[in-house]
Specification:
Blueprint (H helix, E strand, L loop, with lengths): L26 H25 L22 E2 L7 E2 L11 E6 L4 H8 L10 E3 L5 E3 L6 E2 L5 H6 E6 L11 H18 L8 E3 L17 H15 L1
Parallel strand pairs: 1-5, 3-7, 3-8, 4-7
Antiparallel strand pairs: 2-6, 4-5
Helix pairs in contact: 4-5
């Protein structure tokens, strides 16, 4: 009988010498390994698809031009370059509110969020007098936290003012923002606590300091809890 040819390579097969382990994978091992690799690829692809769900046609929630998620908010659209269209919470769970400070005026914040070159925007902007503008639907991922995972799972609220000026944070602003945060917590079943309502500075990897030492967290959270109870 002549030498056999292996199916995998077409080269001559050599029997191992006595005492020599045959380290060549058998056909079954290759098949099993190939199946495992294929399964791994499928699982990875499925995981990736779960994060690209927003790209697939026919899965968007119904949208209406000018519609807002928070009653009383004024709709002012941010540039589409400053967000990623999504279908939250179906594709990404929402379990955080991130509090920001604009380091500028309300108008300047609105302007930069409408600028496609800025590459950042929050869902809401709260003015000193308590006025609320919604610039991105909560369905969509806003580029506001500087952390992709936190962007995908959070709603961002900007507040007019400066971190170094305690006078930026007015009674009207605190009250209005607290009602907004309470409504978001109620909508997504989030506990009203400092694990789920955080400052920009608390986002992992963030290089920002807002809302800063003058933001009164005890006061704010008390107002949020009161507003949340009123919604029950």
């Amino acid at each position: 009988m002549g030498d056999e040819l292996t199916e995998e390579t077409g080269h001559e097969a050599r029997a191992p010498a006595e005492g020599e382990a045959d380290r060549r994978p058998g056909r079954r091992a290759l098949l099993v390994g190939g199946a495992a690799a294929a399964l791994g690829t499928v699982l990875l692809a499925r995981e990736e698809l779960s994060h690209l769900w927003w790209r697939l046609p026919g899965v968007d929630h119904a949208r209406e031009d000018g519609a807002v998620d928070y009653r009383g908010a004024q709709w002012i659209a941010a540039s589409s370059a400053n967000l990623r269209r999504a279908d939250r919470p179906d594709d990404y769970q929402i379990d955080r509110v991130v509090v920001h400070v604009t380091q500028g005026s309300y108008r300047s914040a609105v302007n930069v969020f409408q600028d496609p070159s800025h590459r950042a925007a929050a869902h809401y902007v709260v003015r000193r007098d308590g006025h609320v503008a919604q610039m991105i639907r909560e369905l969509d991922v806003a580029f506001h936290a500087g952390n992709r995972q936190y962007n995908e799972r959070s709603v961002g609220i900007e507040h007019e003012g400066f971190v170094e000026k305690a006078s930026s944070f007015t009674d009207a602003m605190y009250a209005s923002s607290a009602r907004l945060t309470a409504a978001i917590c109620a909508r997504y079943g989030m506990p009203v606590d400092r694990t789920h309502v955080i400052g920009h500075a608390e986002v992992p990897g963030a290089d920002h300091t807002d809302p800063g030492r003058h933001w009164d967290w005890d006061r704010y959270m008390k107002l949020v809890r009161r507003a949340r109870t009123a919604l029950a």
